[in-house]
Amino acid sequence: MSEQRTKIAYLSNGFGNFSRSLFSSLAYAGYSAEINLWCSDKQKSLNEEVIANNIRAKNPNSKGDIIYISADSAEAALKNAGLVILEFNGLTPLEMSRSLEICSKNGVSPYSGNNAGAIFAVNACALLPEMLDIGARIRSICPKAFVVNISTPLAVSMLCLSEIFPKIKMIGCLDETDSTIETVAEILTANGIPNVKKRLIKRNLTGIPGFNFFTSLTYNGEDVLPIIKNAAENYFKSSNKTASNAAKFDFFLRYDVLPAVTDASLADFLPDWYKDSHITKISPSEPLDEYKRFNSLTKALRGGTVLPVGNFTETAYIIKALTGGGNLISEVAAVVRECGHTTVKKTNALISEKSCKSLESETLPPEVSIYTCRHRLNYKILLDALKQRDLDIAFNAFLNEPQMTLPIDTAAKCFTELLTAARQKLIYYLQ
């Protein structure tokens, strides 16, 4: 094995579409590594070992020298690791589907179901015990390793890891700004700017995971936010409102900061302003349908189909920079101290080998920042529930979601049903 190969531990409770995009992107980024895969379901890590190694062996477009090895235990994967990737999800696809059915029945369906919304509290409660366990293992086995966390829900998992291991070196990655940058590029092209290169769109990002904003955008040294604002105004003047930016444009015109996330993610963090817009709420069938597609693709990939190689995810470039592949300015989530409290913030950062330094960024206007406070409070409530093993405390976070308008007795019944649907993941709280 090449002495230049970085040892990376990739731990998961169920690999998914993002991990495969990451495999493809790492092959495109072109560097040398040994990636040890561990999943609580051994067969899943064996599957991904074959699928990921086939890129190197069979895809001529692969630029890297990466070997994937399925580890027998998390400890084996973590031993001597210089970098750790965490991809954990709270609810399984089946639990997610059942939870969405319960929410739909009670009239409190989330838009995206990821980092806020009616199932957020239960999703976080299901995830946090695993984060406690994994954080303790990292602290014990490879305390000097840098951690890239791509778990969902992200912010609360990062706060949990930083509590169990206060000296952890960690960033969070969501690759959640891609759709907005694509929209910006399309608008600039439509306004006569030729050959727009998305990576050259300079932006200042701030907010929290799932709910973050560009306070400035420049291209070739020119402030392009006025061009975006004009496009937003024209959108609402038009009779054709089929584009997927209604919530984004509305918020931009209200507060003069451009949401960097999808309309669905934005809507989950706010009062139900956009219930009559185009946004389609996540349906109970979606998690299971996606899981079935993933399993079907797994069979094809194990049978000889090879993943493509391409620039699909910014996280691959972040990993390359952290392992000595040069400096990079990108967008990350980081645990920070603000106003005397520990919280998670999305920010621009300078990333280099084993280092990530947040760059000075503009703050959100107070009228926007106030919307983040409720969610930051929910993170604290859910961590308190974890520490005290008390799901009654978590109920307060459930009630505190912006779109939670149910009467207290109906809300309590709904929450109990959600806990029942996820009971296999909540044993920690009953001990």
Q: Would you kindly provide a written description of the structure presented here, covering whatever features stand out?
A:
It is a single chain. With 431 residues, the protein is of the alpha/beta class. It has helices at 17-29, 42-58, 74-78, 93-106, 120-141, 154-164, 178-190, 225-237, 246-255, 263-268, 285-302, 314-322, 366-388, 391-399, 408-421; strands spanning 6-12, 32-39, 65-70, 83-87, 146-149, 169-172, 201-208, 211-219, 222-223, 258-259, 328-338, 341-352, 355-358. The model has no long low-confidence stretch (mean pLDDT 93). The strands form two sheets. Strands 7, 8, 9, 10, 11, 12 and 13 form a seven-stranded antiparallel sheet that branches. Strands 3-2-1-4-5-6 form a six-stranded parallel sheet, with helices on both faces.
